[in-house]
Amino acid sequence: MRPDEMEALFKVHRDAEARRDYDAVLETFAESPYLETVPLELRSEGHDAVHAAYVGYFTAFPDLAPDDQGAAFGEDVMVVWGHLAGTSGGEWLGVPPSGATFRVPFTNITTFVDGRMAGESIYFDLATLCEQASIPIDAVRAAAAVRRSQSYASGTRSSRSLLQ
Length: 164
What we know:
The structure is a single chain. Helices cover 38% and strands 34% of the residues. It has 164 residues and is an alpha+beta fold. The protein has a single domain (3-153), classed as Nuclear Transport Factor 2, Chain: A (Roll), CATH 3.10.450. Strand 1 (29-37) and strand 2 (42-45) form a beta hairpin. 31% of the residues are buried.
């Protein structure tokens, strides 16, 4: 895909995220999408798991909002960076909310296939997010480890939800 095509589709995706329109978010993805939260080593694969992951993100952080500040393009890949801000307003991996806010730098790598998004990998500083949002990092890491082990035990890398 050309950079302008990737950028246009990514904008449609971001707009759908902002509206919390999960069906529209999923329409931007190819047939077998993935969503990867790198600091937690969690990856959702397939439409159902990716849908659940988005619901989990926006339940845990109802006002979650990326502030994209730059982008770079390669062959069928787009890298976006900026700041991610939100409020801990719901359970995250079973960890209770704190009501506190955070703003952390992030990098998002989106790959493309057949004119759609293949998936996203998001990178951010988990320790800083947890510190700012008053969320116990050890509890988040432990919950992510349990989620990974459940995922591997079931013979799949996908999970019901990354963040609920």
